[in-house]
Amino acid sequence: MWQRCVPLALGQEGLITLGQALSAGCSVDTFKRHVAKGEVERVLPSVYRLAGATETPRQKLRAVCLWGGEGTAASHSSAAALVGLKGFTLADLHAVTTKNPDKLAGRATLHTIPAARPGTQAIAGVPVTPPWITLIDLGSQAPADEVRRALDGALRLRLVSLPQLRWALATFGRERHRGTTVLRNLLAELGAGYAPPESEMEAYFYRVIEASDLPPGVRQFWVWDGKRWRRLDWALPEISLGVELDGWETHGTREAFEDDRERDRRLKIRGWNVLRFTWQDVTRRSQQMIGDIHAMIPPKSADSAPFGAILG
Predict the structure, then answer these.
(1) pTM score, whole prediction
(2) Which residues sit opposite 97 in a β-bridge?
(3) pLDDT in tens, 33-71
């Protein structure tokens, strides 16, 4: 029945397949009549759109997945955008499929796979490859620095873990595949306790620090202030020196301002010095920032009290 087809299409961003219409009780002849009246229009083989439905990148991607059925899913940068990784959009559509992609030339960039990706799940109705495979795929499309940011974002959102990614490389990685090589090289740079930056500002700060002659320090270091545990964005624990990055998103409220002041006081009482830097400090006055940190490091600080001594 056509009355059943319309609500079904409305729940799929205005899309419906011929197979779905037939399963809803609509005959082929009835469906053709509605096509002839202009009430639905063909967008892909066996995929139709209700007249007046707004065409969007997400709808286009969903149409591709409806065409391909099981074994077709958003992938690469499209999958990264759908899971919420910053810097990726649906402007350039990508999908993996087990079907012949030639029939959809120009609709999206389709990547042929031998079988459906295990772990594929729907996001807002669109099947999406699992994050651990998406990160491998991204390396074949995006520059390594963009894949690094995507990796950090996926770790920060807890979409993946380092052991999971190493398993994915061993299971799905391919020799002489650029994506496999890029992700493997990135993982080789990370230690077991790697902490991804929690903001763009943190990521920029870490890059500046790592390119300087400062000691490596510890990312996201937790210290007891006598009342509760506090997290510092970066620290040299052996000399009780911490760094806080005052981004507006997390430090721009009155409550955050008051909490920051209390934390600084309590840590100062326990022998800690905390330097605070802004986005302008990190991005435009980085050499001055490095110099300020250097000025807080006493000569031969490597011979200071052992790491555990500052936690008492």
Answers:
(1) 0.76
(2) 112
(3) 999 999 999 999 999 999 999 999 999 999 999 999 999
**Whole-Å CA distances, 210 to 115, 152, 183, 205:** 42, 16, 20, 9
Sheet holding 218-224, edge to edge: 218-224, 229-236, 241-245, 273-277
Letter for the amino acid at 262?
E
Sign of the torsion angle spanned by Cα atoms 218, 219, 222, 225: positive
Give 81-103 pLDDT, tens digit per residue: 999 998 999 999 999 999 998 87
What 3-state DSSP class applies to 113? coil
**DSSP conformational letter for 300:** T
H/E element holding 259?
A: helix 254-269
Element (H, E) at 231: strand 229-236
CA dist., res. 211 & res. 214, Å (int): 8
- Please write down the HEC assignment for all residues of 132-169: HHHHHHHCCCCCHHHHHHHHHHHHHCCCCCHHHHHHHH
CA separation for the pair 72, 64 (Å, rounded):
8
Secondary structure class of 45 (helix, strand, coil): coil
Please provide residue 261's backbone torsions phi and psi, each rounded to the nearest 5 degrees. -65, -45
Sign of CA dihedral 96, 101, 104, 108: positive
| Spatial separation of the C-alpha atoms in residues 274 and 289, rounded to whole Å | 13
In 3D space, the residue among 55, 71, 168 whose CA is nearest the CA of residue 127 turns out to be 71
